[in-house]
Each structure stands twice: as structure tokens, then as C-alpha cells.
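re the bet — no i am not wrong, look at it urself. input seq straight from the record:
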Amino acid sequence: MVPGVNESSSDELLASLLTLSDVYLTGYHAAHMGRVAAGKTVTVVGDGAVGLSAVLVSHQLGAERIILMGRHKERTDLGREFGATDVVAERGEKGISEVMDLTGGEGSHVVLEAVGYMPAYEQAYGVVRPGGVISRVGVPQYEDAPVGFGSLFGKNATLTGGPAPVRAYIDDAIPRVLSGEINPGRVFDKAVRLDDVAEGYRAMNDRSALKVIVKP
């Protein structure tokens, strides 16, 4: 329990603090490396906990437009609450075309890729505008260079990202959580006991849960 708050509020606070060791600050790292700033158009590829965290951070950093690419309505609805201005459920060329239409054919200044699979990278490459930045925090599940990898040169685009050094960001994030400025713990939508950890992983794998918290 936290002094001065009820049990429900304490649980919410704990959930938000837990995200600082993982998903929220991974999303922050994506936005930081992508140089998200006021007035920019940002596309987030992936509606998992990291992708939604990237939406929240992009909103905090003042992005003018935030396009979330995801097809799970419960997640994209939370993404809208976190600050997404548009949701694109289509994938592949249709998804790329929709983002390009939304941006007047220009593409996004910044693309935050939070999946790690080749199709997600290809979507990121397809929607980044010339001179833009692709920031990847989804662990790549491929060994070969993606299709179009060398063509980043032609777009004059930057490819960045990598494992999140959460310790570098956590001192600034903790006061934001404690003050109630941010509530990233909303990504937790299922709780399991220690004996049911395997069930928690199954729920996330089959997309019946977004993020699972383990309680003693």
C-alpha cells in the first residue's frame, strides 16, 4: 500500500511504476531515438504494450499527428485515449497507402516500429517520408537485411533504435508517474498469480490479453 491512497489507486500506481522497467520506457526510447517533437507526424507500427506506450510518449512530446497501425480494436481504442489521432487497421501495401493518404502523400516524419517482424519493417519503410527517421525497438526476428534496406539511402532516411537503456530515463519518469501526469499502467489488462504465469503468457500469445501483471 502507498500512504494516502486507497487500494485501487495503489494498484494503478504500482502497475504504472512496473512499466518503467520495460514497456513504457521502451516506447520512450523509440520516440527519443526517433526525435519525436512538437509539430511532427508520427506513425507507430504495432498495437502491443510497447507500441501503445510509444503513442503515449509521442503525445507527451507534442507530436501533431499520431497514426497507430494496429487491428485489435480494444488496443487501438486505448491508443486513441493515449493520444493517437488516427488508426490504420490495414497491413502491407493497403496499410501503407492509407497512411500516405492521411499524410497527403508525404509520409511520416518519424516511424516507431514496435513489432520486430519483417512486414512491420517494410511498413515502416513504406510510410517514412524522405529525410525521416525509422526507430526500431521491436527485436528483429530476421537475420537478412530487409527488402529496401539499402534504399534508405535514396530516401535520405535514418534507421535507429535498439534495446532500451531504461535506467537512463527512469529518474525523469518516476516523478511523472507519482504525480499522476502519466498512467502507462493501463496497458495491464490481466492479472495472474505466480502459479499461473504460463497461462499469462498464453493469453498474451493468443491476443486475449495485452499485458499481464503477476501478483503474489
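see?? Residues 1-7 have pLDDT under 50 and may be disordered. told u. also Residues 2 and 10 are 6 Å apart (CA to CA). so pay up
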